[in-house]
Amino acid sequence: MTMVLEARAKVNLSLHVTGRRGDGYHTLDTIMASVDLADTLWIGERARGITLSVEGGAPAGEENLAMRAARLLEPLCDGRGADILLIKRIPAQAGLGGGSADAAAALIGLNRLWDLNLPPCVLARYALRLGADVPFMLTGGLARCRGVGEDITPLPFAGKLPLLIIRGGEGLSTAAVYHAMDRMDAPCPEGSPDAAEDALRRSDRARLAAALGNDLEAPARALGLPVDEICADLIESGALAARMTGSGSAFFGLYESVDAATRAQVRLAARYPFCCVASTVAQGLAWTRE
After folding, report:
1. Catalytic residue among 29, 39, 102, 133
2. pLDDT score recorded for residue 90
């Protein structure tokens, strides 16, 4: 058996840092949306052992999140193995959750390949061990996520939102961005998760544009990312609003239509080598073959 899964990226429509726990992890209140930019995982049977091959910009060793996910489930597989081929399209260190999506796809795929029959609640516990975004990636779509990724409230899919995603520079380490935030005075919250959720429930794109925000833009700016310049480029290209996603260095513009996003792509592609028209989608993973 060989199965193929599309592991989709996410954007943070709103991201508010709510605190820091005693163990150093930051707590968030964020609205995440899956988009149709995706990596592909081919997962096939093997007599024993696990192999990982990667096409694109990601490590192929034990540090890869897809391999780490496989290692978590390996003790349950009764000696069976798997060959995993990961085709990377989501840029790394961009705040788009590519590694988290790959990990979620590996958990879902291997659970089926190895006939483990682990229920969603158990997979979610494994996912949380891999990273704060991974539990959301198991289902994706649209959700408000609180805490360190464990508290997920699905939201009704608000229809496809047309986006242009650009990478604004070299990748930023998530740890470095949070460390920079910890050295700053308490930032003024950017946007409002409550207002963003209300706008999504009402399918009010104008109100959503006004509610978008990301508290991590300030520390990313302090680390040298040209946040204001990139957002201005997106606004000047016709975006209703523009924000950084996650801890950067990717940004997204929200547009009135796919045509408007496509026109903006033509305008900005020469300046930003990674410049991708995308839309929000109702699921984070998709089976393309089984």
Report:
1. 133
2. 97
> Distance between CA 104 and CA 111 in Å, rounded?
11
Angle 220-223-227 from CA coordinates, rounded to 5° = 45
Alpha carbon distance 142, 39 (integer Å): 19
Indicate the pLDDT class of residue 184, thresholds 50, 70 and 90. confident
Asked if the bond preceding 34 is cis, omega within 30° of 0, the reply is: no
CB 250 within 8 A of CB 168: yes
Domain coordinates in residue numbering, the chain: 2-155, 162-279
Q: How far apart are CA 56 and CA 43, in angstroms?
A: 17
The pLDDT of 35-50, averaged and rounded, is 96
Alpha-carbon span 234 to 251, nearest angstrom:
9
Is residue 133 flagged as an active site residue? yes
Sign of the dihedral defined by the CA atoms of residues 37, 39, 43, 48, in that order: negative
Q: How many CA atoms lie within 13 A of 181 on its CB side?
A: 25
From CA 145, how far away is CA 154, in angstroms rounded? 8
Q: Is 215 considered catalytic here? A: no
Q: Distance between CA atoms of 219 and 221, rounded to whole angstroms?
A: 5
| Cα separation, 253 vs 3, whole angstroms | 34
Distance CA 8, CA 18 (A): 26
Percentage of the chain surpassing pLDDT 90? 84
Element (H, E) at 108: helix 98-113
Assign a CATH topology to domain 162-279. Alpha-Beta Plaits (3.30.70)
Select which of 10, 29, 102, 215 is catalytic. Answer: 10
> Could you say which architecture CATH assigns to the domain 2-155?
2-Layer Sandwich (3.30)
